[in-house]
Amino acid sequence: MRLVAEFTTEPFDVEGSPPAHATEALRAAEEAGLDCEFGPLGTQVSGDQHLLLPALPKVLEAAFAGGASQVTLQVRRDA
After folding, report:
1. Which of 11, 33, 48, 66 registers the highest number of CB atoms within 10 A of its CB?
2. Element (H or E) spanning 36, and its range?
3. Which residue did the predictor score with more confidence, 45 or 79?
Protein backbone atom coordinates (compact mmCIF):
# COMPACT_ATOMS: atom_id res chain seq x y z
CA MET A 1 0.00 0.00 0.00
CA ARG A 2 1.23 3.48 -0.85
CA LEU A 3 1.03 6.16 1.85
CA VAL A 4 1.39 9.94 1.98
CA ALA A 5 2.64 11.82 5.05
CA GLU A 6 2.52 15.56 5.49
CA PHE A 7 4.45 17.26 8.26
CA THR A 8 4.99 20.80 9.46
CA THR A 9 7.86 21.78 11.70
CA GLU A 10 7.79 24.77 14.00
CA PRO A 11 8.71 27.47 14.77
CA PHE A 12 7.82 28.99 11.41
CA ASP A 13 10.40 31.29 9.89
CA VAL A 14 9.21 32.84 6.65
CA GLU A 15 12.18 35.17 6.24
CA GLY A 16 15.38 33.96 4.57
CA SER A 17 16.43 30.35 4.15
CA PRO A 18 14.34 27.45 5.47
CA PRO A 19 15.19 26.60 9.09
CA ALA A 20 17.42 23.66 9.95
CA HIS A 21 14.54 21.71 11.52
CA ALA A 22 12.71 21.73 8.18
CA THR A 23 15.71 20.91 6.00
CA GLU A 24 17.02 18.17 8.31
CA ALA A 25 13.60 16.49 8.34
CA LEU A 26 13.53 16.67 4.54
CA ARG A 27 17.02 15.17 4.34
CA ALA A 28 15.96 12.23 6.54
CA ALA A 29 12.96 11.57 4.30
CA GLU A 30 15.09 11.73 1.15
CA GLU A 31 17.67 9.36 2.65
CA ALA A 32 14.85 6.89 3.37
CA GLY A 33 14.05 6.81 -0.35
CA LEU A 34 10.73 8.65 -0.13
CA ASP A 35 9.31 10.94 -2.81
CA CYS A 36 9.46 14.44 -1.29
CA GLU A 37 7.80 17.79 -1.98
CA PHE A 38 9.26 20.55 0.17
CA GLY A 39 7.01 23.57 0.61
CA PRO A 40 7.09 26.87 2.46
CA LEU A 41 4.67 25.68 5.16
CA GLY A 42 5.30 21.95 5.20
CA THR A 43 6.64 18.88 3.50
CA GLN A 44 4.81 16.03 1.81
CA VAL A 45 6.47 12.63 1.45
CA SER A 46 5.13 9.48 -0.15
CA GLY A 47 6.14 5.91 -0.70
CA ASP A 48 5.28 2.31 -0.05
CA GLN A 49 4.27 1.70 3.54
CA HIS A 50 7.30 -0.54 4.17
CA LEU A 51 9.51 2.51 3.41
CA LEU A 52 7.41 5.34 4.80
CA LEU A 53 6.37 4.02 8.21
CA PRO A 54 9.89 3.13 9.41
CA ALA A 55 11.17 6.50 8.13
CA LEU A 56 8.81 8.61 10.23
CA PRO A 57 10.73 8.28 13.53
CA LYS A 58 13.92 9.30 11.70
CA VAL A 59 12.16 12.34 10.21
CA LEU A 60 10.87 13.37 13.64
CA GLU A 61 14.27 12.85 15.28
CA ALA A 62 15.94 14.97 12.59
CA ALA A 63 13.41 17.78 13.01
CA PHE A 64 13.85 17.94 16.79
CA ALA A 65 17.64 17.64 16.52
CA GLY A 66 17.48 20.60 14.10
CA GLY A 67 15.66 22.76 16.65
CA ALA A 68 11.96 22.09 16.09
CA SER A 69 9.70 22.91 19.01
CA GLN A 70 6.77 21.02 17.48
CA VAL A 71 6.05 18.72 14.54
CA THR A 72 2.56 18.16 13.21
CA LEU A 73 2.16 14.95 11.21
CA GLN A 74 -0.66 13.48 9.14
CA VAL A 75 -0.55 10.15 7.33
CA ARG A 76 -3.08 8.84 4.80
CA ARG A 77 -3.46 6.25 2.09
CA ASP A 78 -2.54 7.51 -1.34
CA ALA A 79 -5.66 7.70 -3.48
Report:
1. 66
2. strand 35-38
3. 45
